[in-house]
Amino acid sequence: MEFKEIQTLMQNFEDSDIRELELNQDSFQLYLSKNKQTHKHEDLVSTERTEQTTSVKKKINEQPALLSQNITAPLVGTVYLQPNPDADPYVKSGDHVKKGDVVCVIEAMKMMTEIKSPFNGIITSICVSNEELVEVEQPLFSVQEDKDND
């Protein structure tokens, strides 16, 4: 992909209603997001124009594509990253999760829904803040999936 095409893509993304865009092409990966995040995603291209240019050039020249999956919200509601306000979070960045482990809870209409990891892997980033309102299919966590995933 040519640099001018990338610039056009980023401008079109900025002008659109789309919240996230992920593009994987051979060894090139581009991730753009308008979502508020507590941690800077490894593959996130900054919204500041000079940082965008630098990041994109680095990705084209240096970065191999990372194989990661997102755990997404199955419903609209308020996400809770810990069981209660005084407790430790269900998971932290760098934690290993197994398929079926609870990673957070989403409250919708006074009903609490446990969100479980659909695969084994390592949490690489947390894409939401505690008590944030989330939408259906919004990424909650990025997970680098284990090679021997069952």
From TrEMBL:
Name listed for the protein in its UniProt record: Biotin carboxyl carrier protein of acetyl-CoA carboxylase
Physiological role: This protein is a component of the acetyl coenzyme A carboxylase complex; first, biotin carboxylase catalyzes the carboxylation of the carrier protein and then the transcarboxylase transfers the carboxyl group to form malonyl-CoA.
Keyword entries, A-Z: Biotin, Fatty acid biosynthesis, Fatty acid metabolism, Lipid biosynthesis, Lipid metabolism
Domain Lipoyl-binding per the UniProt entry, residue ranges: 68-144
Taxonomic source organism: Limosilactobacillus balticus
PROSITE patterns named among the record's database cross-references: BIOTIN, BIOTINYL_LIPOYL
InterPro entries registered for this protein in UniProt: AcCoA_biotinCC, Biotin_BS, Biotin_Carboxyl_Carrier/Decarb, Biotin_lipoyl, Single_hybrid_motif
Pathway(s) the chain acts in: Lipid metabolism; fatty acid biosynthesis
